[in-house]
Amino acid sequence: MLSGFMNLFRACFGPRSDRYVRSSSDSGGRQDGLLWYKDTGQHFSGDFSMAVVQANNLLEDQSQLESGCLSTHDSAGPFGTFVGVYDGHGGPETSRFINQHLFQHLKRFSSDAQTMSADVIRKAFQATEEGFTSVVANQWPMKPQIAAVGSCCLVGVVCNGTLYIANLGDSRAVLGRIVKATGDAVAVQLSEEHNANLAPVRQELQSLHPEDSQIVVLKHNVWRVKGIIQVSRSIGDVYLKKAEYNREPLYAKFRVREPFKKPFLSADPSISTHQLEPHDQFIIFASDGLWEHLSNQEAVNIVQNNPRNGIARRLVKAALQEAAKKREMRYSDLKKIERGVRRHFHDDITVIVVFLDSNLAGKSGSSVKGFSNNLSVKGGGVHLPSNTLAPCAMPA
């Protein structure tokens, strides 16, 4: 079965090319107003589906799925699938930077270690944070507001039968696991969230800053770090990590009045490791725009009870229907609202559903040594080797 899948993969994607194109129509992704979607595709150990809907004037969500070799040495491995969901705030610059650099850092550290591990992932996050901090330092004289741009960062890596989940902020990864006795799918949240509205997060912040009675402030019934931001961990948001960027000409609304020596926010991800089992069927990766309107179990039920093809788009639609219902309006009317204004009704929403075919998920990368054909898909547009567009278009 594995060899058959590899033959299919090779036939579709052909030899690896270093030239990539960005085209939603030519390579399988489609656009429908503010919605971009890729209904179906194949990754290293199963199928996947992606969808992104825009609400902000500029899309602040970015996402990617990379499948194949997870190191810079294509013939050496390890092999598997990388999923990233990056929910930006304050602008799109940080999420775009993560989309361009995080996976490349992971491949480099994986090559150095000759394996995949939580330590490899943590180093990739750290290098990405340091890279964006350098961008802020370089642009500060001309564009000081970039110091107030940041992004949540949710990553999943499936490699050698192991699932790694790393997270900063409040995006979420939820596993759909089959209960043998009933055949139902139960939702298992895999990611730890960092949002000041959660009591354990407030307690963590207060223990890290015992001298600061205003480390978390309740404003308009929402808990915020320093009364400014909800998430306690992120990439970017340098103005709350380095005091030299918390001053004029940064807008006054972002500035903390008192001087500080310790960063208020962290870029250290929560990382968990899971050995995949045959009853682990799929994982839903999504920005908080989805979870604002759907519970974990509601989302898992939708995936379990509907065809795989187009399932990410179906989840987005379900969230938008709930958003419309809360405003006592029709879904069809909500879809007519333009970006920017749409943000008053829902956030940017990114969803990636990754199915885990049990006969492939547990296979070791060593069984396909030499396999070097990589699939790269990014939300808002699809990246595929430029010489394989025609045969690789997936049905939508």
> What's the CATH class, please?
Alpha Beta
Number of helices: 10
> How is the CATH topology named?
Phosphatase 2c, domain 1
Any guess at the CATH architecture?
4-Layer Sandwich
> What is the CA-CA span between the terminal residues?
25 Å
Anisotropy-based shape: globular
The CATH superfamily appears as PPM-type phosphatase domain
Spans of at least 5 consecutive residues whose pLDDT stays below 50 are 1-27, 359-373, 381-396
Number of strands: 18
Round the Cα radius of gyration to an integer and report it. Answer: 21 Å
Percentage of residues in strands: 25-35%
Mean pLDDT: 86
> What class do helices, strands and sheet pairing give?
alpha+beta
Compute the number of structural domains.
Answer: 1
Q: Order of helices and strands, N to C?
A: HEEEEEHHEEEEEHEEEEEHHHHEHEEH
Share of helix, binned: 25-40%
Give a quick account of the main beta sheet: strands, pairing sense, barrel closure: 9 strands, antiparallel
Keywords: Hydrolase, Magnesium, Manganese, Metal-binding, Protein phosphatase
Family: Belongs to the PP2C family.
Protein name: protein-serine/threonine phosphatase
Pfam families: PP2C (PF00481)
Could you please describe the fold and organization of this structure?
- The chain has 396 residues and is of the alpha+beta class.
- The chain has a single domain (30-195, 231-379), classed as 4-Layer Sandwich (Phosphatase 2c, domain 1).
- 27% of the residues lie in helices and 27% in strands.
- The chain has helices at residues 2-13, 93-113, 118-139, 199-208, 288-291, 296-304, 311-326, 331-334, 358-361, 389-392; strands spanning 30-32, 35-43, 46-53, 61-69, 79-89, 150-151, 153-159, 162-168, 172-178, 185-189, 216-219, 222-225, 235-236, 270-275, 280-286, 349-355, 375-378, 381-383.
- Strands 4, 5, 6, 7, 8, 13, 14, 17 and 18 form a 9-stranded antiparallel sheet that branches. The protein has a 7-stranded antiparallel sheet with strand order 1-2-3-16-15-9-10.
- Helix 2 (93-113) crosses helix 3 (118-139).
- The longest helix has 22 residues, at 118-139.
- The radius of gyration is 21 Å and the shape is globular.
- The model is unreliable at 1-27, 359-373 and 381-396 (pLDDT under 50).
